[in-house]
Amino acid sequence: MIGKPARRGDGTFGELVPAAVAVIEKGMLVARGPIATIEIGAETKILAKAMIKQIDRVMSDLINQVTQFKRGSGNPICVAFVGINFAEQYVSFEGRKRWPTDGKKYKHPIQEAVQAEQRLNDKARSAFDEFQVLRFRATNAKPYPFEWVDLSITELEYSALLTRVSREYERRFD
C-alpha cells in the first residue's frame, strides 16, 4: 500500500492508486499494482514440523498482521490460511544436514497437529474475519508426496470462505 509504512501481507487487495497502471500477467486472473487502500488482507502460515515449539510465534505473527492490515485505513476483511501437517513422519534440512522426526525427541507432525490446531483456534482465529486451517500430509522426502487430509472437506471449507468474503466485500465496499 502506497504512503503507509507497514509489513506487507501475503495477499492484499485494494483500490489501485489512480496514477498507477495495473500489471496483467499471462495466466493470472487478478492484475497487480500499487494500492491506495487495503480492502482484503490475507496471511498464510504453514506448520510442517516442530509445531508446538513455534506455535506462539506463528500466532503472534498472524495477530500482528491483522494490525498491519488495519493500519492503512478503513475496515479491511482479514483472512488467514494456516497449513498444518498431519504426516506420520517428516524430514527437514539445514544445508545438507537432514533432521528426520523420530517420534521422541523430534515429534512426528501427526503427534502435534491436533494441539497446534486447537491453540490456533483458541488464540488466533478470533482476530480474523475468516480463518481456514488447511490440513495436509507431506513428508518432505523423495518423491515428495503431498495430499490433503480430506480433500472434499478442504474444498467445501475453502469455497464457503470465498463465498463469505465475496458477500462481505459487497456489503462493505459496494
What does this 3D model show about the protein?
With 174 residues, this protein is an alpha/beta fold. Helix content is 34%, strand content 23%. The strands form two sheets. The protein has a five-stranded mixed sheet with strand order 1-2-3-6-7. Strands 4-5 form a two-stranded antiparallel ribbon. The chain is elongated and about 55 Å long. The model has no long low-confidence stretch (mean pLDDT 92).
List the helices and strands and how they pair.
Elements: E1 11-13, E2 40-47, H1 51-71, E3 77-85, E4 91-94, E5 97-100, H2 109-123, E6 130-138, E7 146-148, H3 151-173
Parallel strand pairs: 2-3, 3-6
Antiparallel strand pairs: 1-2, 4-5, 6-7
Helix pairs in contact: 1-2
Summarize the structure.
The protein has 174 residues and is α/β, with parallel strands linked by helices. It contains 3 helices and 7 strands; from the N terminus they run ββαβββαββα. It has helices at 51-71, 109-123, 151-173; strands spanning 11-13, 40-47, 77-85, 91-94, 97-100, 130-138, 146-148.
Throw out a few tags for this protein.
174 residues, alpha/beta, two-stranded antiparallel sheet, 3 helices, 34% helix
Estimate the global geometry from the Cα principal axes: elongated
Low-pLDDT residue intervals, each spanning 5 or more residues = none
**Radius of gyration over alpha carbons?**
18 Å
- Across the major sheet, the strand order is 1-2-3-6-7
Largest sheet: 5 strands, mixed
